[in-house]
Design goal:
heterodimer, A: 528 residues, mainly alpha, 0% strand, globular, B: 74 residues, two-stranded antiparallel ribbon, 3 helices, 3 strands, 8% strand, disordered N terminus, disordered C terminus
């Protein structure tokens, strides 16, 4: 075991537990626990949204992909780097208002109430639980594997220790703890990534030095079409690679729930700036480090390529600093796991327990149920993860694609298209998610050069557009709610001033009349 | 076919004999395609921020603003 790294990791774990305990005292109601009392400011929202979106894949899978294909891998980065803009603008303000108008604390409940259909809830809950379950399982495995490979823990012990820390702060502190630990983890991630990038670039002679060394190894590493020009003119694959992370996040329930927790719709614009800046500093770095790995760490194969960043950290930094970089990898995983656990607990407690099992549950009972669900999911997930089923890591991208294709049109149309109804939403979710499953399972991407996300999104968008013309139309009440979600126009200050003046003079006249002698005598009152 | 060809010309391939303009020892097409984006996104975010600020100034969101219970606001 590496003592320095373990000591740094231990300090980090203790700090995360401390944050959980601190927020435990502030959590009073189920809305506090599940949605942070809808009181999150823009900085915390930006960081929790982006760190939730970035899992351990960014530290391990991203560099490994860049290591294998060269600059082409950055197609995933540039869509992702713009994702903060989409996340903070498209749905945020309207969804924040509509969720409060309809009194929803779960993103599945939100779809049910907007589309006025229990069917929508059932389908959405099934897809969400399937997608989130796969995602959680993959992240649990990543937790165990990371502690094995980076800190030399035994797998089972590493898995249990890592998950117990995440469970503890999520369980006791709820959404507050998840959001604030995400923010701390986001700062660690960015500090580690930027410092290792600058040092590595300096080592290879800057960007120019890196590119000339790459050209010596294989000039096609520098191509926009990937090593060996393997994706030449494959625009369907490129469009999918860019779009999946540029717009895909607005279909993920564990990301859209962040809008519902915003302190005010007006905070969305500041969230946009923080999220965009964080993304530009963070997202390109792992891919560029993967490319640097081609030069500095030649000959890595298979899963060895996933360790490009840890290997560079050990090469470039002294023990304690390298340990912080390793902690950043754990941070990326933990920030995603805690948000996933939180949301799965919300879906199970609000959308299943309260909706069907105990509709008259008190706020306290809901709080207890949420915590019990989080523990139950963790126990089940760890029990499966200990067995290390094969192919689970692939579930991350698969779950992401399925949820995104299924939910994106429904969330988008929920606030922008009044005509979108339950029929359209249900068929869109089934066809969108189903297309992604079939496309991935049959590996149709290799045959058609079309990314599963790209196809799934086209199908689900067409489905909601076509099938919303059938079935029960949106009620007038919901249309009015959607109008309110656009935002109530302020009265112009000049108009407000003149209205006040008019009302004031009218008020004066009425008051004068009420206390006039004639009026009092008419009514038969007697002046004291 | 013509579209595909014109796109190929636009983002020219980088096999050494075909490349023309280089920046940081990489083809300018690769540089623009990947490394110009941080600047683009930041400028776009600032523009959108201004647009959103103008929209927000016209909207009364008091009923949707949570009164702080101490600690939620960053």
């Amino acid at each position: 075991m590496r003592t320095t790294e373990i000591v740094v990791l231990f300090i980090y774990f203790v700090a995360m537990i401390g944050v959980g305990l601190y927020w435990n005292k502030k959590t009073k109601t189920s809305e506090d626990y599940l949605l942070g009392g809808r009181s999150m400011g823009p900085f915390i929202t930006a960081l929790t949204m982006q760190t939730t979106a970035m899992s351990g894949y960014m530290f391990m899978g991203g560099p490994a992909y860049a290591y294998s294909i060269g600059w082409f891998a950055l197609f995933y980065a540039f869509g992702d780097a713009g994702g903060g803009i989409t996340n903070s603008t498209v749905l945020s303000r309207r969804m924040r208002r509509l969720s409060q108008i309809m009194d929803c604390i779960s993103p599945v409940e939100y779809l049910e109430k907007r589309y006025e259909s229990v069917g929508v809830k059932v389908i959405a809950a099934v897809i969400a639980l399937f997608g989130l379950g796969g995602y959680i399982l993959a992240q649990f495995l990543a937790t165990g594997t990371t502690l094995v490979t980076l800190f030399n823990f035994p797998f089972t012990a590493g898995l249990i220790i890592g998950v117990c820390v995440i469970l503890f702060y999520t369980f006791v502190g709820g959404y507050f703890a998840v959001a604030y630990t995400d923010a701390i983890q986001g700062m660690i991630m960015i500090g580690a990534m930027v410092s290792i990038l600058f040092l590595s670039l300096a080592k290879v002679g800057g960007l120019s030095g890196l590119n000339s060394k790459l050209a010596e190894i294989d000039p096609t590493y520098l191509s926009i079409w990937g090593k060996g020009l393997q994706y030449e003119n494959a625009w369907g694959v490129i469009a999918g690679a860019v779009l999946i992370y540029f717009i895909g996040y607005i279909g993920l329930p564990h990301v859209v729930v962040k809008y519902m927790a915003l302190n005010s719709p007006q905070e969305a614009k500041s969230t946009l700036i923080y999220a965009t800046l964080w993304n530009q500093l963070f997202i390109f770095s792992p891919y560029i480090l993967g490319i640097i790995g081609i030069v500095m760490l030649p000959g890595l194969t298979g899963s060895e390529a996933e360790k490009v960043i840890p290997n560079l950290a050990f090469m470039l930094f002294p023990g304690a600093v390298a340990a912080i970089v390793l902690t950043a990898i754990m941070s990326a995983i933990m920030s995603t796991v805690s948000a996933l656990l939180m949301l799965t607990g919300t879906v199970l407690s609000v959308d299943i327990y309260k909706r069907w099992l105990k509709p008259d549950a008190t706020d306290k009972q809901l709080l207890v149920a949420s915590r019990a669900m989080i523990v139950a999911i963790t126990v089940i997930g760890v029990s499966i993860a200990i067995l290390q089923p094969p192919g689970v890591f692939g579930l991350v991208i698969f779950s992401f694609g399925v949820m995104s294709c299924a939910f994106l049109p429904s969330y988008f149309c929920a606030v922008y298209w009044k005509k979108a109804n339950a029929t359209g939403s249900i068929i869109s979710m089934i066809l969108g998610g189903g297309t992604n499953v079939i496309w991935t399972a049959c590996n149709l991407e290799a045959v058609t050069f079309m990314h599963p996300f790209f196809i799934g999104l086209i199908v689900s968008s067409l489905a909601i557009f076509i099938f919303s013309h059938f079935g029960k139309p949106t009620s007038l009440e919901m249309m009015a709610n959607m109008d309110r979600a656009k935002g109530k126009a302020k009265v112009a200050p000049k108009l407000e001033g003149s209205m006040c003046k008019t009302l004031a003079s009218e008020g004066k006249t009425v008051s004068a009349h009420l206390i006039s002698k004639d009026y009092i005598e008419q009514r038969g009152f007697v002046l004291a | 076919m013509s579209v595909s060809l014109s796109l190929t010309n636009l983002f020219e391939s980088v096999i050494p004999e075909r490349r023309k303009t280089m920046i940081f020892n990489m083809p300018i097409s690769t540089f623009l395609m990947f490394l110009s984006w941080p600047a683009v996104w930041i400028v776009l975010a600032l523009v959108i921020y201004r647009v959103m600020a103008k929209q927000d100034a016209l909207i009364d969101d008091t009923e949707f603003t949570t009164i702080q219970k101490g600690g939620g606001k960053s």
